[in-house]
Amino acid sequence: MHDSGLKILQALFEKITFCPIKINLFYILIYEGIPFVSRERGPGEIKKGTIDDVESMCKLVNKKYKYINRFKFGDNCVLGIIDGNIIGFEWYSTHPYHKEERTGYRIKIPNDSIYFYDAYIHEKYRIRGLWLKFKSYLAEIMRKTGKKRIITIIDFNNDLSIRTHERLGFKKFKFVLAMRLWKKSIFIEKIIS
Q1: I need a surface site. Which of 16, 71, 125, 183 has the fewest CB within 10 A?
Q2: Considering only CA atoms, which of 74, 82, 91 is closest in space to residue 134?
């Protein structure tokens, strides 16, 4: 099916109230090596998040119990801060796998890799350099932990994020169609060469 056809099909199922079918389409992208950000710019300082930051994070996106569970599971978060306020975050994991929360898709994370997911930046601060500051901070974590590759997923219809990642050097590795019918999940994967 053509890209635009998949986007239309996904949008159609999202509009149907109480639809027993849920479709998610996403790419898995890989970055080989540790990212190098030549010039950090823009406002904000970067720090590692803790469970004590959850309430403030919920002012951006309210996923309180998901955030708490992620910290309890051992995942980590990096925060963007301006004047003591959280303006953005990005989660990361070094576990052997990550179960994608919306679909249940299990993402394998090799020992030499780090998995970045669920990034959000307040609208006022987008395209001002904070995302690159996140990547620079996380590159330092990769150096300290011996990680040599980044894995991330991006929704199929998030063209801006896909282009931004590709400009930094990420490559599409796999396309995943995740379908859920009632409580049964089906995943169709296609390796992108």
Answers
A1: 183
A2: 91
